[in-house]
Amino acid sequence: MQRNQKEEVQALQDTIYVLGGKWKLPIINSICNGNHRFTEIQQSIPGITSRMLSKELKDMELNNLVQRIEDRDAKVAILYESTPYCQSFGPIITEMINWGKSHREYIKKQQEKA
Asked: What b/e readout covers 17-33, taking b as 16+ CB neighbours within 10 angstroms?
């Protein structure tokens, strides 16, 4: 079956629109690694500001990637959870992490040869 390049490009653009940028994947990774409070998420991602984290979490909530949960009885009343929809992206994130590690090693070896 012949691939539809136009459809593939549109799908890639959609994915980049929802998950692109410097912070979204690190935020997802942080939440999936057990950081559910705003401060925990921020502390787990070097360089992200409170303002940027707040903006990204709101955007991710609109795209059904994270769920904001209010627990008025808790010391910190707001928690963030990844949605099942977000978790469907988990295997891809794992592969991106693996590729990133391999790429770093590849570049290191190339620099050693030079």
From this structure: ebbeeebbbbbbbbbbe
For 8-52, the pLDDT digits (tens) are 999 999 988 888 899 999 999 999 999 999 999 999 999 999 999
**Which structure tokens are listed for 26?**
């690190």
3-class SS string, the chain: CCCCHHHHHHHHHHHHHHHCCCCHHHHHHHHHCCCCCHHHHHHHCCCCCHHHHHHHHHHHHHCCCEEEEECCCCCCCEEEEECHHHHCCHHHHHHHHHHHHHHHHHHHHHHHHC
- Using the structure block, give the residue that is written with the tokens 């963030």: 80
Confirm if 50 and 8 have CB atoms less than 8 A apart: no
Max distance between CA atoms of the chain, in angstroms, equals 60
Measure the CA–CA gap between 113 and 102, rounded to whole angstroms: 17
Q: d(Cα 107, Cα 114) in Å, to the nearest integer?
A: 11
